[in-house]
Amino acid sequence: MKYQSTRSEDYLYTSAQAIKTGLAPDGGLFVPEKFVRLGADEIKQLSEMSYNEKAFNILRNFLTDFSDDEIKNCVNLAYNKQNFETESIAPVYKLNSQVYFLELWHGCSHAFKDMALQILPHLLACSIKKTSEERCAFVLVATSGDTGKAALEGFKNVPGTKIAVFYPENGVSEIQRLQMITQEGENVSVAAIRGNFDDTQSAVKGIFTDEGFNSELDGKGYILSSANSINWGRLVPQIVYYFSSYCDLMQNEEIKPDEMINFVVPTGNFGDILAGYYAKLLGLPVNRLICASNKNNILTDFVNTGVYDINRSFYTTSSPSMDILISSNLERFLFDITGRDFARIKSWMKDLQQQGRYEVPTITKNKIKEVMWAGYCGEEDTLMSIKDTFEAYDYIMDPHTAVAKNVYDQYLFETGDTTKTIILSTASPFKFNKSVMTALKGDEVGNAGEFKLLEMLSSVSGMKIPESLLGLKNKEIRFEDALSSNEIKDFVRRYC
Ligand SMILES: *Cc1c(COP(=O)(O)O)cnc(C)c1O
After folding, report:
1. Nearest alpha carbon, ligand 1 atom 1
2. Which tens digit of pLDDT belongs to each residue from 61-91?
3. Which sign, positive or negative, has the C-alpha torsion 66, 62, 202, 193?
4. Which site from 148, 150, 238, 412 is most exposed, i.e. has the minimal number of CB atoms within 10 Å?
5. Is pTM beyond 0.85 here?
6. Considering the domain boundaries, does residue 212 fall inside one?
7. How far is it, in rounded angstroms, from Cα 155 to Cα 114?
8. Ligand 1 centroid – CA 221 distance (Å)
9. CATH no. for residue 386?
10. 349 belongs to a structural domain
């Protein structure tokens, strides 16, 4: 199977080439030429397999230029006991007879980004080998918090790779910042950028299309690569857990084979929910994908009005990984929804870049609404959602998951839909302990420091504090740079 750009028909790449390159040369994103469809029998077969076997069977539909052994090897290097604290990798928690949480945060950085970023470095290293590439891959990452740590852990000391992570100076939680600036490894570097996530992402994206800088690095033996969810190698592993959670419900007889279910996805860059859409294209019985946003509700507006407009205020919220105005992967979704109309996509993306706005026609808007329902949740409601769910069910959600739960409650109220629903739970509450404790205990939290908060949360929840978070207390700080976005190139040069 080959991959084309969302903006032209000029490139047909193998998956290894697409993963190595990250962004298509025309600025578009790589998408598979076509999707195979798995039948009910195949989904039934999957339900009898381990997570790793499921991953292998799904990935091989997309990575057709990889050998079976190569795929298995990548899968097993990623999903194992060293990297994940649960054997099932992504367990499903039953909240009540209709609602389940898919917990995607049992990996080493305690956010769902591990699901993809533990395997991406191996897919990339393999892709480099397969394309006879001799240069070292220099991976550039713009992060709104969780990607950074997960990528650093995934790439740490992987031969043939180096990684530089950039995060918005005031846009990440204290735990997230500590996780990144204390990162170990020979091939890693980290810097804060003065600005918000979109500034950071735009600056990093600009470097990928900067021909002069690319050839300068080429001369030094480096090729730029990306670990953001614009990279196909990051997206494809995320399809797996939609199947695994569905199969788990089937195995436990919570649903009948072929029964339709909903997924609620706390959304930022649109990668996670796009993987759910791709799972649907692959044949998973998905009724509705519910797109949950925080106060930065640009996607809610887009789904409901057909207008995508970034000329609006940007808010820093308690769910920072969703503080995004430009959701890059929406481009891939629109490509499919418009029947692969790359000329249209190209012109919308040009409008977005020049005017910060584009509008899709009614027919497109209606098609989007057939598969998606969108809502958003403000700051106060996020905290209330954490508190109410804890009081009703003794279950503690992080703020991103709480946004999803609140939006699901709105969906239920508005539609009365009784379809069984899986809410994607994307971070451990310990990673956002300040917001979670404030939700549960209000003013009692006062000025408690991060490590005091971890203890408080542990005693309220009865959950054990993850070792790696406790250990941050005594770790050496390795990266203290704060840069303006035009200093990124010099920073990269320093680590070449
Ligand atoms: C990244 C992230 C999200 C948003 O996922 P996207 O793929 O960017 O839409 C939601 N929650 C958490 C905790 C995250 O780290």
Report:
1. 321
2. 999 999 999 999 999 999 999 999 999 999 9
3. negative
4. 412
5. yes
6. no
7. 11
8. 33
9. 3.40.50.1100
10. yes
pLDDT (0 to 100) of residue 209:
84
Rounded alpha-carbon distances, angstroms, from residue 275 to 53, 229, 239, 270, 423 = 18, 10, 5, 9, 14
Q: Under a CB-based contact definition with an 8 Å cutoff, are residues 317 and 299 in contact? A: no
Query: Nearest CA to 148 among 431, 423, 459?
Result: 431
pLDDT digit string, tens, across residues 455-465: 999 999 999 99
3-state secondary structure of 102: strand
Residue with tokens 């481009």: 331
Cβ of 228 less than 6 Å from ligand 1: no
The boundaries of the domain holding residue 241 are 92-110+235-431
Which of 102, 105, 108, 112 for a ligand 1 pocket mutation test, highest count of atoms within 8 Å of Cβ? 112
Q: Is residue 359 part of a domain?
A: yes
Q: Identity (one letter) of the amino acid at 199?
A: D
β-sheet bridge partners, residue 13: 3
Burial of 26 (0-12, 13-18, 19+ CB in 10 A): middle
Alpha-carbon torsion 82, 87, 91, 95, what sign? negative
CA-273 nearest atom, ligand 1: 9
pLDDT digits (tens, 9 = 90+) for 146-160: 899 999 999 999 888
Determine the distance separating the centroid of ligand 1 and the alpha carbon of 211, expressed in angstroms.
30
DSSP 452-475: HHHHHHHHHH-PPPPHHHHGGGGP
* Contact present, 384 and 439 (Cβ < 8 Å): yes
Distance from C-alpha of 50 to C-alpha of 76, rounded to nearest angstrom: 11
Span from the CA of 120 to the centroid of ligand 1 (angstroms): 16
DSSP string covering 213-254, please?
Answer: HHHHHHHTTEEEEE-STTSHHHHHHHHHHHHHHHHHHHHTTS
Task: Enumerate residue ranges in the chain where pLDDT < 50.
Answer: none
Number of domains in the chain: 1
Q: Is residue 38 part of a domain?
A: no
CA distance 393 to 95: 7
